Structures are given as structure tokens and as C-alpha cells.
Amino acid sequence: MLELTAPLAEGQAVGRLLRAWRHRMDRRSAHGSLGGPHRSRGRLSQADVARLTGVSEGWYRALETGTRRDFSDAFLQAVADVLRLDEAERLTLFLGVSGRRPPEEHTAPSPPPAGVLDLLEVQNPHPAYLSDESWNVVAANATMAHWFPWVREPRPNLMRWVLLAPEARTQLLDWEDDFARVYLAMLRIAANRNPGSPHLRALIGDLLTDADCRRIWSDEHGVVEHPDGHRIRLRLPVHEGAVVEVTSQVLLPVASRDLRFVIVTRNDAATAGPDRRPAP
């Protein structure tokens, strides 16, 4: 049995992975990018990867040997692209070298996994929905649509309905304190997490056309990531004027990290009645 007499040097584990990932690459697949009178057979060398990522051979060699350097996200992304790393390998490279996750890419969102959609439906009779990083509602179960019919409209957005829809200010009780201040505080974190997102910039611009939202945005400095366990009171048409207190629970699906899975549960014991049945 192999006995380790000393811990692995910092970076060594990732360095071994990098060498394995580089050795699995057929150099001919990168031949056109390398240019010049280079040999076309064999595996990529450290010099090859350095040339393809635009750094010196010594700089790339430091990455493979675990030597501490201030490696930028752009360089690590370039290495991952050259070595054709998949999502899990790219994550391992970033965490092992810098302790950071790869920066999020703002690409067209993929459809929610079928299993997540199935899980959404089994939450009935509790309202449940999926929203993306800009609070677009990408899926909702039948009870959510029964309580909040606006989720069936084209391109429904939670922030826009809560903060801009006139009916929201009467259906969501304590609108300013329990909704507007909390939702705008979430937007502050989102805007700093993804400063390059055109969708978030457009959303914030639309919301700040409202005088109340603009005042709260200017006066308040609170930040909230996810209001998990947020207790709120509603007076919805589906409840025929009755005030209903609910709690929203926020989950983050591992398979779709850009989505929020939100379940709304009533705080009373009632489980029957017309408001508990999905719309036909």
C-alpha cells in the first residue's frame, strides 16, 4: 500500500489533472491554431498550450507545477477552452487554482431539466414556480397560475409584476415594507454579482421609472440574496377577499444553478376550499 509521508504540495493535485487533460489532446486537432512549421502528431506540449493561450511557456508551466501566481479568470478560461474541459473539469480547475468558481457566461438559457419540472408539479396544492437570474418566470405549476394568473402571460417577470403592476399594491399587503424594499435589496446583490448582464440592467432601468421604486432605491442600502422563509400576507381575488398569510421557500437546483425554485405555503391549517385547487 502506498504510504504518504507528507501532504501533497499546494496545486499538485490540479497540476496532475492538467497534465492528464493535456496528454489526452491530439495535437493535430489544434494544428491549424498553432501555425508555423510545427510537428502535427503527438500530444499537446506545455509550449503548445502557452502559445494557444497567449502566455509564456514559463507562465503556463507554473500553472501545471502548482507554483503560486496571480492567474486571471481570463487565462484560466483560455486554458479550459484549449484543453476542451467540460463543465465539471472547468469548475475543478478554477476551484483548485484560485478558489473561485468560473465567471458566469450570459448565454441563452437552457430549458429546465424535466426532473425539475416534474418536481414543480408535485408541489400542488402549493403554488410553486421557477425563475431565472432576472426573475423571469420560466415555469409555474397549476396552483401558482390559479393564484397569480399573470404568470401565464407572455414573458412574465416577478419583479415587474410585484413592483410595477397596479393590482400588486392592493393584493400584496404591506407592499412597501414587505415587498418593495426586499425585492429591490435583492436586485442590488444581483446587479453586483452580474454587472455585465443586459437583462438585469434593463430590468432595473424599467423599475426605476416608478417614483416609489426610485425613492426606495435611492434611500435604502440594504441587501438581500434570497428571502428564504419570507412571511407575507396576500389578499388575492382567488381567496374572495380573505387575507392569507404565506411563507415562500427558495431552493437552488444543483442541475440548474441559474434558476430559483420557489414554493409558497400557507401558514394556516386550511388545505381545502376553492383556492387550494388548481384551475381546471
TrEMBL record:
Pfam families linked to this entry: HTH_31, MLTR_LBD
Boundaries of every HTH cro/C1-type domain copy: 44-90
Superkingdom to which the source organism belongs: Bacteria
Record PANTHER family: BLL4672 PROTEIN, BLL4672 PROTEIN-RELATED
Protein name: Helix-turn-helix transcriptional regulator
Organism in which the protein naturally occurs: Streptomyces mauvecolor
